[in-house]
Amino acid sequence: MTSQTEIELLKSYQEKLIQAIGYLDYSYQKVLKLPTQFAKLDQETLETWESFSARFSRVSDLFLSKYVRLYVDMHEPGFRGTMIDFINQAEKMRLLHDANTWVEIRKLRNATAHEYSDQAFDDYVQKILSLTPKLLELKTVITP
Question: Which stretches in the chain have pLDDT values below 70?
């Protein structure tokens, strides 16, 4: 049975996610106009990319580590497992449409793009750019 505390906590996560998604969208709109090749970046542009990457990570972490875990716990109190298990369970519960995409998002969140080798950076930003729309769509998933 779902407690009032769990419902309030889920609402709190929803509010935090909506705010974080707004910040991510702002950064996303900025980086769409920037070069994606490390060799072409100056200090200011690199800082903008770092901010975008941090916001991508924050939204994915809030959603997967907080919201999805609590959502699954509320509906399946005895469920236990790894983050990948929770992602798969959320897909079975129809909270997520494609578990593989969310596993990839989780891996990117865990990736360190701080080495700044040209190719690693270029690949990383291309991946987060292509997956950001999934994170922005969360507004429709998390609101009743």
Answer: 1, 112-116, 144
Is pTM beyond 0.85 here? yes
- Find, among 139, 118, 15, 113, the residue nearest to 57 by Cα: 113
* CA dihedral (72, 75, 80, 81) positive or negative: negative
Contact of 34 with 49, CB cutoff 8 Å = yes
The CATH number of the domain holding residue 53 is 1.20.120
Domain count, the chain: 1
Residue-wise pLDDT tens digits, 76-94? 999 999 999 999 999 999 9
Identify whether the C-beta of residue 86 lies closer than 8 Å to the C-beta of residue 69. yes
3-state secondary structure 85-133: HHHHHHHHCCCCCCHHHHHHHHHHHHCCCCCCCHHHHHHHHHHHHHHHH
Domain residues for 101? 4-142
